[in-house]
Write the C-alpha cells for this entry.
Amino acid sequence: MNKIINQYQTKNATEIKDIDSENRSVAIYLSKFDVIDSDFDVIKRGAFTKSIREHGVDSPSNRKIAFLRHHDWMQQIGKFTQLEEDNVGLFAVGYLGNSTAGNDAWNDYNDGIIREHSIGFRYITDKIKFIEDASTDIGGFYQINELQLWEGSAVTFGANDQTNVVEIMKSEQKHEHIIRINDQIETITKSLVNGKGSDERLFEMEMQLKRLNSQLVSLAMHEPVLKHHSLLIEPKYDDVNWNNVIGNIKIY
C-alpha cells in the first residue's frame, strides 16, 4: 500500500449532521473513529487531541484549524465554532462567513451540492502502528494514534483534492502541469520572503505552499514513499530542480 509520508494529505470524511439556517452554521463529522477506510487507516480517538488543544477553537493560537473549500487556503469559507472528539469521531460546527466564498458555500449547503467533508493533515510517522489483520487486502491496517490537523474542508459530491493529480499523472501533459505548479510555488515563496501582511496571511500562504508541494511531489516522483509496517522507502524523482522548489519549505 503506497502512502506519502510528511506531506499535506487529504482524506474524505462523512455526512452533514445538521444545517442551522438561523445561525448560518453546519454540524458535521470531519472524521470517524475505528473504521478501516480506503487507505487502510483506522483513526483512533485521541488522534486530534493535540491539534485541537494547540490550534482549536478555544486555543490561544491565532493559527486556528481552518474551515475551507476543497482544501484551498485561498477559499476560507468561515470558521469552526466547535471542534471536539466524541465517541463517534471528530465533530465540528462551522459558521459560514459573509464573503463571496462563504455565501457560495452556504447556498451550496442548502441546495445539497456540498454533501461531504474532508480533512487536510499530516501523518506523524511514530504515531502509526501496523496491525496485522488477515481480513484486509494488505494483511492488516494502519492504526493512526495522532495526526497533525490543519483544516477541514467542504467538498462537492466527494471531490478529492488529489483526483486531478491522479488523472494528470496518466496524461501527456504531466510536465506542463509540473511547471505550472512550480510557478505557483515560486510566486508564493517570493511573497513569503517579502513577509508582508499579517501572521494569519503568511500562515495561509505557507499552508497553500505545502498543499502545492504535495501535488508536485505526487506528480514528480517515480515511486511514492511507502508506508509499510515500520519501513519507509525513499522516493525517486524526475529531473526537477528541487533545490529551487522545496528546499526552503518547512514541515512541522
The chain is about 30% helix and 35% strand.
